[in-house]
Sequence to fold (615 residues):
Amino acid sequence: MNTEAVVLTGAEIVCECLLREGVDIVFGYPGGAILPTYDALTKYPQLHHVLTRHEQGASHMADGYARATGKVGVAMATSGPGATNLVTGIATAMMDSSPIVCITGQVPTGAIGTDAFQETDVTGITLPITKHNYLVTSLDELAEVMREAFHIARTGRPGPVLVDIPKDIQNQSTNFVYPTEPVTLPGYKPPRVGRADQVDAALKLIRESRRPIILAGHGISMSNANRELAQLCERAQIPVALTLLGKGAISEQHPMCLGMMGMHGGAEVNHAIQQADLLIALGMRFDDRVTGNLATYARNSRKIHVDIDPSEINKNVNVDVGIVGDLGEVLRQLLDRVERRPNDAWFDRIAEWRADSELREIVRPAEAPQHPAVPEGKLLGAQVIRDLFEFTGGNAVTVTDVGQHQMWEAQYYQHERPHSLITSGGLGTMGFGLPAAIGAKMARPDQEVWAIVGDGGFQMTSMELATAVQEQVNVHIAVINNGFLGMVRQWQEFFYEERYNQTPMVNPDFCKLAEAYGIPATRVTERGQIEEAVNENRARTAGPTLIDFVVEKEEIVFPMVPAGADLDDMIRRPTPEEFERKRRERAAAAEAPEEPAPEPEAPAAAATVGTRFGV
Fold:
């Protein structure tokens, strides 16, 4: 125990605790109930405060900061609407297990429960979307609460913690002694190693398997278990499929890496999962975008699930062996005894599926023969992402919003390092991209950071352009602008008979919008312009830049597993031969004498596909 006490106000104690927890940046927006803490910040120049333009932006920036570094991100807001504006960012962090601490001001303790001005029960509101939250009712508990908040946020399965501090607590003074003993919380003891009998059982299943697949999730990078994952797949000759948040768990250039699984994952990856006799799920949670129809999901496989959170075991998918522990520790337990065994026949089969996928590929080098489905002279969002990968050498940290561009990024930007893709995978939060990219760039100023956003999501938080300018954050913004809420439009095309209700968008001129903030901007409408625009923006090393990529309106993300369908029941782009045959059939039908139209039948989901781009 540190016995050197000094008299501090509650607000100053908050600042002292932030410093002792290693905080260097606080993202926030001031207001009446948090003003004492903002006033105290003037005494702590080591804490750099970033004035956001909306509290949602503050929580996303803290999230981006946390995901880029593995450190705890901090957001601050006042009571009432300030606190509730944090909620979307808190829920986003909760779904993706991102460690952030949100500090909110509250009305004075005597006014709580009186519907005072800007009073909201934010601990009640955030109870289901935080790992833990606190309403501080005594100054004496404040330092310990702050210490616990950071401990809970960063340990075990990371997540958001909220600390709500009434204004009078911030103004009161007391002797401050920062406790130094390890934090101990009843009932909260995240396990480190896996149980020996469960590890034995997992090794037995691995030995008996002939068609194994590793499913690598976000937990790999969060546990810094990337090297152990590579060693396991190489030693046991097991291919690796990635979740969206698992991208970067292993280099996507690694010969054992299959790529992304799930709704918009590779067809060969989903086929492999469905035909596997063993799934080894590591730090992933079997969400519905990954599994499709649970009743038919990999039903001939046995399953091993390793996760730090015991509540994830058997939650969505019943498994044969569940191991609770830190992934790095558990993988080292397996590596000590796993045997090398060939799986050549299994890899050959996957290669056949991959060859079929490559026939259907729409993104090819500009000088190569193009897939006949590519409209001549049109710029595709998928092309933009692939070229961005090429021209950045695959070395950028990319931060996406949510929608079609997010899936193209996942398909065409190959990540080799952990924490190099930051995206809202669980909550699917439109508006996440720009503020999270600002947070990531401030956390990692040495890294090239690109915010890849759609025209819809970008406008939800585009006011944070001002934050980027005020802080001179050198983040590059790529707007994939198709004039639609693209993914919603795609669903309307596939499943709602092309009734594009409320998805076409009238957008501002994004270049002029950027220029209004003093941000240099470029518009790209042809593929041949991408390289020059990207290089010009990369050469600007001060402040934000923006490129408005005007892409084809009706481009589709292929393949796609319809929601709730079997994982291998994918809607796929046709091969060139299939495409040409369909085109000849349509031409012949157009020249044939007109016949009375038959009675319409309700179209099946797959039958509605084919009237638009790519099919």
